[in-house]
Design goal:
Layout (H helix, E strand, L loop, with lengths): L2 E6 L6 H15 L4 E6 L4 E5 L3 H36 L15
Parallel strand pairs: 1-2
Antiparallel strand pairs: 1-3
Length: 102
């Protein structure tokens, strides 16, 4: 899909003025990738862009961020499990002199 510059003119233009304006719009849009479209009756301009590429890039970026977040969760879970194992060792049930605690 091509990006389009819409131009609305307030009043009806004659064929000569319309052709001249179209030529000027093409010159302005040259090198931008925009295609000018001229409408009589009402002046204003808008750029309508093809957003498919941008949407695809954002979706790919979102998937990459989700994968990174999931791997970060896995690392945190692993580290928490390692820490829990260190603290789960059986406590020493003896006093410092070696006698058993009751």
């Amino acid at each position: 899909m091509t990006d389009v510059l819409l131009v609305h003119v307030e009043k009806a233009l004659g064929a000569d003025k319309s052709a001249k304006l179209q030529e000027q719009l093409r010159a302005v849009c040259k090198g931008t990738g925009l295609r000018p479209v001229l409408f009589d009756q009402g002046i204003g301009g808008e750029v309508h862009r093809d957003l498919d590429g941008l949407v695809s890039a954002i979706e790919a970026q979102t998937q990459a961020i989700n994968a990174l977040a999931e791997s970060n969760r896995a690392v945190v879970d692993y580290l928490l499990a390692q820490e829990a194992e260190e603290h789960d060792e059986a406590p020493d049930l003896r006093y410092l002199d070696g006698s058993p605690k009751d």
